[in-house]
Structures are given as C-alpha cells and as structure tokens.
Specification:
418 residues, alpha+beta, seven-stranded mixed beta sheet, 16 strands, globular
Length: 418
C-alpha cells in the first residue's frame, strides 16, 4: 500500500507489478503478481528468477495477517489483545504494558507441532544487567544477556555461552573524500588495525576477526558461505609495515603529504563502549600511519543521519542480514542501493550481484556472490573489523538451546529442561 510509506517495500519489488503499484504508477492491485488460488494456496509471480525468494519470505513484511481481525481492531500486534500469531507460544499476560516489565508466554494449543514442544511456559523479565545477573545468581532466572564490558567476569564459568549474532562491524570510508578515493590508502587503513588485539583487549574476547564481509551463519552452496570461501584469501591481516608502504604510495599517487591532509574525523556512537572502540581504531591509525584522527561521537539517530547524508570521513558501522543469503549483505554495496553511503561505484561488482540475483543454478549463484565479495575486499570502500557475538549466562539444565543468527533471538522449539 503506497499510503503506508513503508521503508522496506522495495524488498517486494521482485514481485511482478509490486514496484509500479507501490510507487503509484498503477492503482489496480490485480496488476500485482499475488493471487489466491484456494484457502491454502498463494501464488506469487516474480519479475525474474530470484534464487533466495524462499528465504526472503521469512522477513516480517511477508508475515500473513488476519484481515478480518485487523479490520475489527484497526490495529495489529501493538497490544496483548491484538497479537495473533501461529508460533509455538502465545502471549498470555503482558504486565505493566506498555512499560513491559514482564511477559508470560504459554505453549500454544493450536501450534501445528505442539506435541514436540517441551517447554510449557516462558517468562520474560525486562531488567537492567545488574538486576538480571543478580537474579541469575539467586536461581530465579535461567538465561541472562551479558554485555561486552561484563563478559570477562564470567570467562571461566561453565554457564557462559556465546553465540554468533550474524553481524559485521566495519569502518565505512567516504570515497568522495580525496584521501579515501585512493585504493592504496584504503588498503593501508585495513592493514593498520590489529583486529585480534581489539577483540581481546577492547571486547573481552566477544567477537571474531573479520577480514571479509559475509559473516558466519550465512548459507553457501553445501556449507556456510564463510567455510567455502575462506577470508584468509583476501590478505587483510594486521600488517603495519606493509600498511606504511601502501600509505606512502597512496599519498604519492594523490600528490599529497601528511601535512596537507589535516585531521580526519571518525564518526561513532556516543555510548561509553562505542567510544572506547572508536578510540582504539583512531589510535591504531595514528600510530601505524601517522594519520591524525579525531572522534565525532553522536547519538544513534544522529550518526545514522550523518552517514546517510555522507557527512563523515570515516564511520563505525554494522550490518546484520535480513534473510539467510549472502545477497542480503552484499547487495547494499551496489551503486543503486541507498545504504551504500560510501560513494564507491563498481560496475563489475554491480554486474556480479545482478547475475547472482537472477541465476537459477544455485551453485553458480553463490559463486557470483563470492566474486562480488572478492571485488569488495580488493577495493575496500569499507574495512571489515569483527563479526559480532552475544554472550549469555545459561542454566546448564537447559538443553538444545538454539540462537537464531537472522532474528537474533532464541528458538525454544527443540529445547528441553533436564
């Protein structure tokens, strides 16, 4: 519906007629390639082949809605009384809504696989970290999130569990800045940052070194994409001596010297944790390249807006996949993506992404994404730093606890309590 101004509508543009309808060129919904065949069959016609369409359907904008229920309530999912779902659990109570201090989930009796759901009830408490950890120690909580700053306190605990969260953290470089228009300068910055030291000393071990863009947990041909295409092939490991050489070569190509550059601003978040991380990057670049970097710390919304406006030199950014396919990450660096805020354009890169989207042969499609990533890691408009992880204290009596990389939430459908 064009009246909703929904930012993610473009993900439906793969459906025949969807873009024309959403952008107002057609007022006839029957021109959109979605048709009800019977009570159990929905037919979708795509503009062209799209190998990851089944995975795309797991995104929330594709969730089915009960039209009759919506029309009666004129609201959907914002209150306990207007939640209608088809999952393993229903929301039985939601205390202190909308402050949301606690929520009680009960196993659904209409779930298709209810006989295999072992955990009957789940209570969710909204507490700050110190409160939740204290309750865990008392034995009144079974799972609590542990922040990066606290995780070192529990490194020897058998209860500490870490899970890859599917995120990639990176430095975005504004390629419209003359300095970062040079490929050797960008490569020098990539080699000047000791990622392992960053993870060990700044993040207390919570994360994995990233020398590529697609994180673990994203599917490839027969295994995870990252297992099939090793990031070691990109040669982005910490190498300060090589970084210095590349930096000097880049300056020479630009006919610049360090005195002419002045100070480079690094845009980052304004939380204590994010400032500490940004300071590490700035210090590494200063020490290894002699490039003066100052921090520009902003709130999340302000940082996001400045990034979209390309009002930055370098920016600390992160991205997580919307659906389980390499394209969800790699497509953001195409030249027509509004998320590509670097100013970098590669027709070769665009071509491999386009080929991957329409390729019907699954193996060839994944290979095309790998070729695109290779270009991205050769050109380096962005500098990958680390793959994110989340840490939890988990009651050892809980078995088969699965953390979903895409939704960043626990899946209790196979879990049970010893």
């Amino acid at each position: 519906n064009p009246n909703n101004n929904f930012e993610y509508s473009y993900l439906m543009y793969c459906i025949s007629g969807a873009q024309e309808y959403n952008e107002g060129f057609s007022q006839d919904f029957s021109s959109v390639g979605v048709k009800v065949i019977d009570n159990y069959t929905l037919q979708v016609t795509l503009k062209e082949a799209l190998g990851y369409f089944p995975s795309l359907l797991s995104l929330y904008m594709f969730y089915p809605q009960n039209t009759k229920f919506f029309n009666e309530n004129n609201e959907y999912g914002g209150y306990p009384s207007t939640i209608v779902g088809n999952g393993e659990y229903i929301v039985e109570t939601w205390d202190n809504f909308p402050d949301s201090s606690s929520m009680f989930l009960k196993k659904s009796q209409t779930y298709w696989n209810k006989q295999n759901i072992n955990i009957e009830n789940i209570e969710l408490l909204m507490l700050d970290e110190s409160q939740s950890i204290e309750k865990y120690k008392e034995g009144s909580l079974d799972i609590v999130n542990v922040s990066n700053s606290k995780v070192a306190d529990y490194k020897d605990s058998k209860d500490l569990k870490t899970f890859a969260d599917g995120s990639i953290w990176y430095l975005g470089l504004n390629n419209d800045n003359p300095l970062f228009s040079n490929k050797k300068i960008r490569k020098a910055i990539a080699l000047s940052i000791d990622r392992q030291a960053f993870i060990d000393n700044i993040r207390n071990g919570l994360g994995e070194v990233a020398e590529s863009f697609v994180p673990m947990g994203i599917i490839g041909k027969n295994d995870f994409f990252r297992e099939e295409y090793k990031q070691s092939l990109y040669n982005l490991s910490y190498n300060p001596s090589k970084a210095k050489v590349l930096f000097e070569q880049g300056l020479k190509e630009l006919k610049l010297d360090k005195a002419m550059i002045g100070t480079i601003a690094l845009l980052s978040g304004d939380s204590e944790e994010l400032i500490k991380e940004a300071e590490f990057y700035a210090e590494q670049i200063r020490n290894n390249l002699g490039l003066q970097v100052e921090l520009d710390t902003e709130s999340f919304q302000r940082r996001l807006q400045k990034t979209l406006d390309k009002d930055y030199d370098m920016v600390v950014s992160a991205w997580g996949s919307d659906y389980n396919d390499p394209g969800s990450l790699l497509e953001i660096w195409t030249s027509n993506s509004f998320l590509n805020t670097t100013g970098w354009i590669s027709n070769n890169y665009n071509n491999f992404i386009k080929l991957a989207k329409v390729e019907k042969d699954y193996t060839k499609r994944i290979d095309n994404y790998a070729k695109a990533e290779q270009i991205l890691m050769d050109e380096l408009p962005i500098i990958p730093i680390f793959y994110g992880k989340k840490a939890f204290l988990v009651n050892p009596n809980i078995e088969q606890l699965h953390f979903q990389v895409i939704s960043n939430s626990f899946d209790f459908s196979n879990s049970f309590i010893k």
